Amino acid sequence: MAKRPVMLSGRVAVITGSTRGIGRAIAERYGCAGARVVVSSSKPEAVAQTVAELRGRGIEASGLACDVSERAQVQALLDHAIASYGQVDIWVNNAAISGPFAYTVDVPPGAWERVLAVNLFGCLYGSTVALPQMIQRGYGKVINLTGGGYKRAQRFLSAYSASKAGIVRLTEGLAREHADQKFLSFNVLAPGIVPTDMTRNWESIGAAAEALKAFPRVMRIFGTTAEETAELALHMASPATDKVSGKVFEVLPRRRALWRIAQAAVGRR
Q1: What span, in angstroms and rounded, lies between the C-alpha atoms of 161 and 154?
Q2: Angle, CA of 55, 58 and 60, to the nearest 5°
Q3: Angle of helix 21-32 relative to helix 226-237, nearest 10 degrees?
């Protein structure tokens, strides 16, 4: 029997950091599944272009520029979504930055703090801004994207690792706090290493730059795609995850990662 396609007809989804990369792929996938999507990034021109391109594909879309490190701007994004479509059913906290690739002592304090402000506080603001109207409507799914460092620290990316580990704990905390409200779900999406602008254009400082020479090989072994991530994000937004909360969904689970390592080892022989 053929697998039935997942449909999000009647749903409204807000995706932060969605004018390119993973966020853009999720917006497109949700839109093709019938959702009305609200896109955002910190650049107004990118938002306008993305909305136009999505509409050109027959997707009902709107958008607003938003710096997720500013709670007032995240609130404005919610207000825009409700003004446009009357509701928000799915909120995807995807916007993120890597910060400098460097020894921790070489990272300017402001740069370290900026990573936490965008990655971790951006998830906090998105989750808590969306939550009251989800509770009022009796339905809501919050999906927070993590990344390298959520299981163990990534060398030379201490701020990024700390922020991504914090996102998992934040999501688990929200899930536990709202465990009695079965119409809510808070889950984490772990994409793996996806070739995006973030992973192509590292800002390196000092001696750590030498370690970047190994990154192409790491990408070949552990790389995933934005499309794979979007497909998993669609599953997480679907009825299949109703009453599922506090879980980490991985594009590259441990068994698949070990298989990749084994293949790479055989290839070197």
Answers
A1: 6
A2: 60
A3: 50
Alpha-carbon distances, residue 49 vs 64, 95, 139, 215 (angstroms):
11, 18, 31, 31
Q: Do you know the residue count of the chain?
A: 269
User: Is the per-residue pLDDT at 261 higher than 70?
Assistant: no
Calculate ∠ Cα 177-184-61, nearest 5°: 130
DSSP H or E run through 140 = strand 140-145
Q: What is the pLDDT of residues 245-255, one digit of tens each?
A: 999 999 985 54
> Which strand (E) or helix (H) includes residue 102?
none
Q: How far is CA 127 from CA 9, 44, 147, 157, 176, in A?
A: 22, 23, 18, 25, 14
Helix (H) or strand (E) holding 145: strand 140-145
Say which residue the tokens 């998992």 belong to.
Answer: 168
The yes-or-no answer on residue 160 being catalytic is yes
Q: Annotated catalytic residue: which of 30, 125, 150, 160? A: 160
